[in-house]
Amino acid sequence: MASKPGILTEWPWKPLGSYKHVVLAPWAMHSIYCFIGSRKSERDYAYFLIFPFLLLRMLHDQIWISLSRYRTAKRNNRIVDKAIEFDQVDRERNWDDQIVFNGLIFYIVRMLIPPSYSNLRFWRSDGVILTILVHMGPVEFLYYWFHRALHHHYLYSRYHSHHHSSVVTEPITSVIHPFAEHIVYFLLFAIPLVTTMVLKNASIASFVGYIIYVDFMNNMGHCNFEFIPMWLFTVFPPLKFLMYTPSYHSLHHTQFRTNYSLFMPIYDYIYGTIDRSSDSVYEKSLKRSGEEEEESADDVDVVHLTHLTTPESIYHLRIGFASLASKPHRYTYTLSQWYLQLLWPFTASCSVLVSWIYGRTFVSESNTLDKLKLQTWVVPRYIVQYNLPWRREAINSLIEEAILEADAKGVKVISLGLLNQGEELNRNGEIYLERQPNKLKIKVVDGSSLAAAVVVNSLPKTTAHVLLRGTVTANKVANAVASSLCQMGIKVATICKDDYEKLKLRIPVEAQHNLVLSTSYAAHKTKIWLVGDDLTGKEQARAPKGTIFIPYTQIPPRKLRKDCFYHSTPAMIIPPSLSNMHSCEVSSTWIKLLKLLLLPFS
């Protein structure tokens, strides 16, 4: 939001929230109906292709988002070496508003223009050349002066300051503007399109190509890493006047009063607004590329080794969809997430590619906690693969390779997330210590002690009895919770005799009398249930009214009872000093534990 929001700041469909795309539905359905219902010779391809083209633009933008965040996670040649704040992530979440707006305009214009203008040929060379020339002249010139006007304090405070709130830019920062600005931008970018329409040399290629060019240059210029090779400008020196680079536009976001040009810096050179450090910043950014790629993981203190859960969980990573990454992953979706089901064929193919291409772990996120540098590495395997006995050795090899790689790079602590620390898989990580006796300098932790402490502190202070349910003996957290509660004098009941016998061996003798074997659910009337992720609906139905279900695993039970209370999974409040944290799927629960473990090294 701008510092002093002006008129037409908000998008008209803001009240619709995530249902905003429904405004395109009537037009899209009508175009499909007309296309199918018409004879082949009478089909209006331009009208029909509007909706697929909008989807293509969204996919194009999402690819840039994922690429940028993957490069940022690896800390490769960042131009501005700062973290992205929560406010920016929230502010830039609605990046597709401008695509919805463009789609509506395309459909409305198509309905208003005569049929002779709408039946476009696929290619016309004269139209493509004219589009290029009109962009280089009127569009770039008018944008330059409009942009300078936006930096006048009156317009800047009411509109453009919203865009400049993002000092550390991402590709999608390019389209984060108030609604009023987008109206002007659309009119500017429509000049080449309208010109070719009036002169009757427009084509589908010139329309689609020009809009893709605008999207590509917008996204490229707002990346926070430099990748345009220097040899391009060496081979063709005039190119420096015709194409900007990410570092060139980054200076505009840090200096504010220089580098106003759209995509072609020529107007900054003509009117003397070129930043004098543009060339040096570009060269320095490229030089850091090779150096930082080698050093990106060498200065990391902590690595959290997580994994994928279901095929669609890739969208919940920071490199996925921001709207999903900001929320916990669920196995069922609300109506507002219907598109995930439509994306299933694409999701399945992407999942196969991820598992095939990434034969090893990959970096998905980087964070800092005070002076500690943290990274999240992902094992590209899913829950179904972890549950296959014949896949365990291969998964163990991936985990062991990650531990050895982290140890070789000087990482001090590596934490194993969820299924990477299974009792049946690797005995909670102990197998790796046995395979590498006296060789590992890195601390391998699973976070079970901290999770157990969170569960214990979640209990009401007046608690005297609890019922422990789930796969208790196979869960390290459940064992630690049972032992702690018994030592605190709290009665811990279990239904399974086998669990009772195994737990008793792990509890100090002086506290074993607090472990109770119940003969049935009815025999134990406690309303505090500590549950695992295998709690069934039938078991929930046997709980007394008002029961509090407190999970000790990362997957909470389904909320089937309206007369009971359900706690969230073991978690802690993220400290303010943690930066660049944008994904709920990163197990930040363990960060405070890791900080404590690192104290001897600091």
TrEMBL record:
A molecular function (GO) term: iron ion binding
Keyword Ubl conjugation listed: no
Gene Ontology biological process terms in this record: lipid biosynthetic process
Ranges of residues in domain Very-long-chain aldehyde decarbonylase CER1-like C-terminal: 466-586
GO-annotated cellular components: membrane
Domain of life: Eukaryota
Transmembrane segments: 45-65, 127-146, 183-213, 225-244
Keywords linked to the UniProt accession: Membrane, Transmembrane, Transmembrane helix
Membrane topology: Multi-pass membrane protein
Subcellular location: Membrane
Keyword Protein transport: no
Pfam family, one: FA_hydroxylase
Main location: membrane
Domain called Fatty acid hydroxylase: residue spans: 134-273
Residues spanning the signal sequence: none
Family of this protein: Belongs to the sterol desaturase family.
Name of the protein in question: Fatty acid hydroxylase domain-containing protein
Biological classification of the source: Eukaryota, Viridiplantae, Streptophyta, Embryophyta, Tracheophyta
